[in-house]
Every structure is written in C-alpha cells, then in structure tokens.
Specification:
The chain is mostly beta strands. Helix content is about 10%, strand content about 35%. The strands form 13 sheets. Strands 37, 39, 42, 43 and 44 form a 5-stranded mixed β-sheet that branches. A 4-stranded antiparallel β-sheet has the order 3-7-10-9, with no helix packed on it. Strands 6-12-11-8 form a 4-stranded mixed β-sheet, with no helix packed on it. The chain is flat. InterPro entries: Cadherin, Cadherin-like_dom, Cadherin-like_sf, Cadherin_CS, Cadherin_Y-type_LIR, Catenin-bd_sf. Pfam families: CADH_Y-type_LIR, Cadherin.
Length: about 800
C-alpha cells in the first residue's frame, strides 16, 4: 500500500500509514516529524514493497508461510481487517484477517506458473470502509532444480562425407531445461558423448558434433550410432541429465575407380547380323554409390571402332557393344575390341589415389552364313535411253554376285509391281535390260523399276536394287500457242499500237533449250490491219498497222500465226489469234464489243437493262394478282348475300341442370347447324314441333308463312358492313347477331314460369334423361299423380 499525501493550506499531513511486510525480505517504515507552524511532516521510506517469494515444490503438511502485511494504524486491537484479492486469492493463498499473515495452501510449480499478482486492502472491521488505498503486490515462486534437460528434437540423424578431415562439423544437438535460467545453475547445460567418442566429439557448450578421425570410409562402415548426454548445474555433482541417440550417416565420395571383373570377354555373331545388332554386354564395377558409379565406355583400338560401337545402358551401367558396319566372314573371322571404362564424375581431390579408368578386351568371332547376292553398285543404278529407241533396244546391264565362297550363279528378274505395263525386259542370266515397248518422254520422263537377283540353287537368297531409267528427249512435238489468245482493241486505235504479247509451249525439252520463230501464215501475208513482231525471247507482239476501226463494218479479226521451233528436225504449227473491235470511252476503257449494243443509250449497260425489265415484269405480275384477289372477294360476298340466314340458327332446347351444372350439355351440339325448313303454304306437311315456340305461334296464328324479312334485312346489313371493313383479310368469318327482332312473341324461358302455365304437355319423358335432369323432372311431373287419382 502506498502513502497518500493531501495538502491543506501550507501544511502536509499524512492521512494513511504504510503497510509493513515480512517475508523473504524484511521491510519497515520510518516516520519522523517536526512540529512547527510552518513545518512539514515527512514519511521516510527506504524501499517500495511489491513482492514476496515462496519456494516451489513444498512438501510440508502445514500451509507454507509466505509473508505478512501490516498497517501503521493497526494498534493490535483487532479493529482492522486485512484482505487480499487476485490470482489464487482464497484458494492457493489465504490471509489472516487480524494479523495479515499470508500462507500458501497448495504445492506450487514454477514451471507451470512463475508468479502471482494480488492486491492487498486494510478495512475497518466495523464499517468495512477502506482505511488505505488498495495496493498491488507479486508473489514469485522461487525455482529449485527439479527438471532434467530434454532433447526435444531427438533422436537426431546427421550425415558427413567420408574421408572428411578432423574437426568437420556434422550437426548440432540442443537440449532444454524447464528450470529458471536466471536463478542459480539449474538451467546451465553441458554436453558430452557417452558412446562413439572414438570417432566423434561434441562441444560442451554449443552441442556441435564434429569428426574425431580423418579416415571415415563409407565402404567399410556407412553409419555410426552416438549417445549424447546433457547435464544441468553446469555438470556439477547433483545435476540432472538426459540423453539422446544421434545417427550419423557416412555419405559417398568418388574415391574408388571402375574395375572390370575379367580381362577378356568372348562373343560370337553371325556375319548376316544387321547393323545395330547387339554383340554382347560387359560391365565394370565401382565400390562407390549413386552418381559416383556413373561411367562411360569407349573403344580404344581403331580397327574395333570402325566395325563396332559401344554405348552405356543408363539403368544398369553396362557397356553395350553393337555392330557399326556389316561383318564379312570371308574377309575376317575374329575381331579383338579394347573397351575402356571411365568414371563420369571424377573428384580431383582423390587423383593421387590412382587412375579412375580400366580396360578389357572383347573378342568377337564372326560365323559364316549363306548370304544373298550383292549388286554392284550396291546403291542402285541410273540408265539413259533415247525416246525414239526401237523395241528390243539395250537400255543397260545390272550386275550382282554371290558373296559366299561358293560363288553360286545369279539369276535376274524385274519386279512387275514396279513395271506393270511391262515396258522393260531383263535377261535372267546376263542382267541386260531391253525395251519391251515404244517410249514417250512426254508421257513419262523417268521409269523406276526394281531388279531382283537370286541364287540359282537357293531361291530364298534374294536381294533387290533400284534402277532409274531416264528417257532422253527427241523433237517430236510442234510448238503451240500457250492459250487460245483473244484480245480487244478500241475503234480509235492508233497505228503501231502494241495490243498483245503471245507466247508458246512445247512439250519437248531440248538440251540446248527452246528457240521459237514467229511469222504470219501465208494466207495472212497480205494483211493490212495488223503486224507480227518477233521479240526474240520466245515471245511475239501484235501491233496495229492502220488507224481507226469500225465495228459496224467488221467487229472481229482472225489472225493466223505460224510458230517454228529450233529442231532438229524443225517442227511448226499454226494458231489463230482473235481480235475484237470494241467501243471505248475517252479514257480508253472498253464499253461494248457488241455491234447491236452500239445503238443503245450509252448511259445504261446491258446488265442494267436486264434488271429494269425484270422489275417491270414483277410489277405487272403484282397488279394482276391484286385484281384477281379483289374479284375473288367480290364473288364471295355475292354468294354470301344469297345464303339463308337460317344456316346460322342454333336449336337449343335443353335447359340443363342450372348454373352450377357445367357438364350437363355437350357443347359440340352448338357447332352443328340446325336446319330449319322454310315454312310455306304447301302440302308438304312441315313439322312445326321442331321449330321454336314463337315461330309456331306465328304460324298457327295466321295460318300463313313466317315473315323473315326483318331478319334478312338486319343480317344483310351486317354482312355489308363486314365486307366494307378493309382492316380484315378476305377470309370466311363468323359473325354474332344478338338481335331478336321487334315485338317478339317468345315468352320467358324460365322453368318456373313454364311450371305455372296451363300447358297440357306431358313432361314424363324428362325422367328418362338421366340424373342430371332429375330435379327438373320433379318440378313438372309432381302434379300428375294427383290428377290421375282424382
């Protein structure tokens, strides 16, 4: 509790005293005062109390005394009550209200909670009024060495490369102690090696593990198990300790060279084996592991490198020896190949250990096989023959030989799938190829055939070669105009004007190249309109010789042109060049080349005139359709006027079961017109009972025919109004005429009104109409039994 100062006028009075506390540290208050009119009262305090200490893990049976709080105003008469509040107040810590003594009732553990914050208060016992302000203090739990060091991350696994120098850092271990590191030596830890100290050491303070020897060899031992101990109290007597296991893996370095288990290997292969065929596999071993065992192989001797090649299998690290060139038993039967193995990842630190390569000899024996004939040259033959060569002429000779020692005779043939037209023949013994048909270079300039050679006594031993035959050209096709040339000129063309350039084509291909000569045909030698100009580059130009042409006189000119090639022999042909005379505008653009179109307006083209005519024809057709449609509608109206209005009268003489009875009547009956025969003064015997009641009254009243003129006039008026309405299409329509006429004699249709009439009509038939008319039948038939009884 702190002292509270209150100033009044010029004097300073102490209103509250200061608490005294006793615990691990004694505390007191000294008060001195000097009384005078202008004196001040001063409370001298040498420290500020705010904490107690209590030892952890107390095992006594009585509550542990913590400390005491006391107020200077306490005179020992029990008038002051001391209380505490805060963490653990009333449960872990209790206070004597009279003396202020604080005790701990439970066993405390600093590792769980290191301190408790509480508040102390001195109150008047009678009034419970606070005598001093509430003061906060702390109870700290004092540590004892009750927790051993623990390796929280163990067990540990580390690694170090083999042959590492002494003192190489491997890894670091760390232990933790739950005791208070600020109090005593309970949390001061030192490290030591219990097992494996011959090969590794550990730093006492940092826990870093290092190598103790320089000759760690993975190939001898690839891992070590260490036991590292951590001791608190700085390793002093009575300190607690904990241990952990450390596994150190020795990693590999490339310190071992490859070695072949044998100095010689032997394999046998047939001379007919194809290029790329595997002869055999050899492997060099390496005591290292991982990529340090990767090696490459090569062939050291020159002769073996020409016929064989070696590659490395990436999965097995084996040397695969394959055939590089075809083997020949007749030339050499045994080959000695020197194969060398080399480490791919040599470590320069271990060069002094020796050479990291090794060699072995691979002896390959070639076995003899029956081989098919071999053509000379083996890559195929190219032959030439003139296009005009006669049938049976020699084209060339192919040669094949049996490579075996027996040298069996060879027979030749042509694969007809490559010469389906049988243009060529071959002599089976000599291999001479001759013509079987006449050639045409313009049809096919090259012929590719396949020649087969087989042994005379073994048809299965066969080989083939490709023969390409080139057809040499002779001049047997005349030159021709490249296209059917046609051009147009204006009527006002100037003399000497170049109007077109022509070129020619020739199917022949002379070795010296083409050279063509152009002249006008003899029949056009007297031509005065156009001239032919030979440009000397295998083209010719057409020029005009006079000015002005009249297409009304002649609108087309045909110019025959003769073309001659350079031979030999020189061949020629004559082609026709068409020239049309056209009308042009002032700029020279062609407008029309038709003589009849010349008289038409220059403002409209033929296409525009055709479009105009089509539009006029469409308009005429539309007008005719409209007139026909109107006439059709007028005819319909006239026929409708003549129809009898009775065609639209519906007979509905069934009242049904009332407004709630929506299913009593079949509405389809309304869709069929009722045919009312016209009432006339005749002897046909019209059945008036089939007519409505008001019609019967009129007929029976005067004995004459019914007058329908009123209805006919009304209906005709409605029809005319409908015909005059232009907003509706001219289709058949349905009109509703809700007009009954003037002074209708028809009575009420109410069933109740009918019940009160004096009609003698028999309504017993209503009972036969079913349950829907049962109620209506009761209204009309209820009086009949009484009449019969009377």
């Amino acid at each position: 509790m702190a002292a509270h100062w209150r100033g009044r006028a010029s004097s300073l009075v102490v209103t509250l005293g200061v608490l005294h506390c006793w615990g691990w540290v004694s505390c007191h208050v000294e008060r001195t005062s000097e009384k005078s009119p202008m004196s001040h009262e001063r409370v001298k305090r040498g420290w500020v109390w705010n904490q107690f200490f209590v030892v952890e893990e107390y095992t006594g049976t009585e509550p542990l005394y913590v400390g005491k709080i006391h107020s200077d105003s306490d005179e020992g008469d029990g008038s002051i009550k001391y209380t505490i509040s805060g963490e653990g107040a009333g449960t872990i810590f209790i206070i004597d209200e009279v003396t202020g003594d604080i005790h701990a009732t439970e066993r405390l553990d600093r590792e769980e909670k290191a301190f408790y914050t509480l508040r102390a208060q001195a109150r008047d016992r009678l009034t419970d009024a606070p005598l001093e302000p509430e003061s906060e203090f702390v109870i700290k739990v004092q540590d004892i060495n009750d927790s051993e060091p623990k390796f929280l991350e163990g067990p540990y696994i580390g690694s170090v490369a083999e042959l590492s120098p002494i003192g190489t850092s491997v890894m670091k271990v760390m232990a933790s102690d739950a005791d208070d590191p600020t109090y005593g030596s309970s949390a001061r830890i030192v490290y030591s090696v219990l097992d494996g100290e011959k090969f590794f050491t550990v730093d006492r303070q940092t826990g870093v593990i290092r190598t103790a020897v320089a000759d760690l060899d993975r190939e001898t031992q690839d891992r070590y198990e260490l036991v590292v101990k951590a001791t608190d109290m700085a390793g002093q007597m009575g300190g607690l300790s904990g241990s952990t296991t450390v596994t150190i893996v020795i990693t590999d370095v490339n310190d071992n060279p490859p070695r072949f288990p044998q100095k010689m290997y032997q394999f046998t292969v047939s001379e007919g084996a194809a290029v790329g065929t595997s002869v055999g596999r050899v492997i060099a071993t390496d005591a290292d592991m991982g990529e340090n065992t990767d090696m490459s192989y090569l062939i050291k001797d020159e002769e073996g490198g020409e016929l064989f090649k070696v590659s490395t299998d990436g999965d097995t690290q084996e040397a695969v020896i394959t055939i590089k060139k075809p083997l020949d038993f007749e030339k050499k039967r045994t080959h000695n190949v020197v194969v060398e193995a080399i480490n791919k990842h040599a470590d320069p630190r271990f060069v002094d250990l020796g050479s990291f390569r090794d060699q072995t000899i691979v002896r390959v024996s070639v076995s003899d096989t029956d081989e098919p004939p071999i053509f000379f040259p083996p890559t195929g033959a190219i032959m030439e023959v003139q296009e005009d060569a006669k049938q049976g002429a020699l084209v060339g000779i192919v040669t094949a030989k049996d490579p075996d020692m027996d040298n069996v005779p060879v027979r030749y043939s042509i694969d007809r799938s490559t010469d389906q037209e049988q243009i060529f023949n071959i002599d089976a013994v000599t291999g001479a190829i001759t013509l079987g048909k006449i050639l045409d270079r313009e049809t096919a300039g090259w012929h590719n055939i396949t020649v087969t050679a087989v042994e005379a006594d073994n048809q299965s031993m066969a080989s083939q070669t490709a023969v390409s035959i080139r057809i040499l050209d002779v001049n047997d096709n005349p030159p021709e105009l490249a296209t059917p040339y046609e051009t147009k000129i204006c009527e006002d063309a100037k003399p000497g004007q170049l109007i077109h350039t022509i070129s020619v084509v020739d199917r022949d291909e002379p070795q010296s190249g083409h050279r063509f000569y152009f002249t006008l045909a003899p029949e056009a030698s007297n031509n005065r309109h156009f001239a032919l100009w030979d440009v000397k580059d295998n083209t010719a130009g057409i020029r005009t010789q006079r000015s002005g042409f009249n297409r009304q006189e002649q609108n087309v000119y045909l110019l025959p042109i003769r073309v001659v090639d350079s031979g030999p022999p020189a061949l020629s042909s004559t082609g026709t060049f068409t020239i049309r005379v056209c009308g042009c505008d002032t700029v020279g653009n062609i407008q029309s080349c038709n003589a009849t179109a010349f008289v038409m307006s220059a403002a409209l083209s033929p296409g525009a005139l055709i479009a105009l005519l089509v539009c006029m024809l469409i308009l005429i057709v539309l007008v005719l359709l409209i007139l026909t449609l109107k006439r059709h509608r007028k005819g319909q109206r006239m026929s409708e006027d003549e129809e009898d209005m009775r065609d639209n009268v519906i007979k509905y003489n069934d009242e049904g079961g009332g407004e709630q009875d929506t299913q009593a009547y079949d509405m389809s009956a309304l869709r069929s017109l009722y045919d009312f025969p016209e009432v006339k003064n005749s002897e046909s015997g019209t059945d008036l009972r089939s007519l409505p009641q008001w019609i019967q009254n009129r007929v029976t009243g005067d004995g004459g025919a019914a007058d329908f003129s009123l209805f006919k006039g009304y209906i005709r008026k409605k029809v005319e109004q409908a015909d005059a309405d232009l907003s509706v299409p001219p289709y058949d329509s349905f009109q509703t005429y809700a007009f009954e006429g003037s002074s209708s004699p028809a009575l009420s249709l109410s069933s109740i009104r009918t019940l009160s009439t004096t009609s003698e009509q028999d309504f017993s038939y209503l009972s036969d109409w079913g349950p829907r008319f049962r109620q209506l039948a009761g209204y009309y038939a209820q009086g009949q039994p009484e009449e019969e009884g009377s």
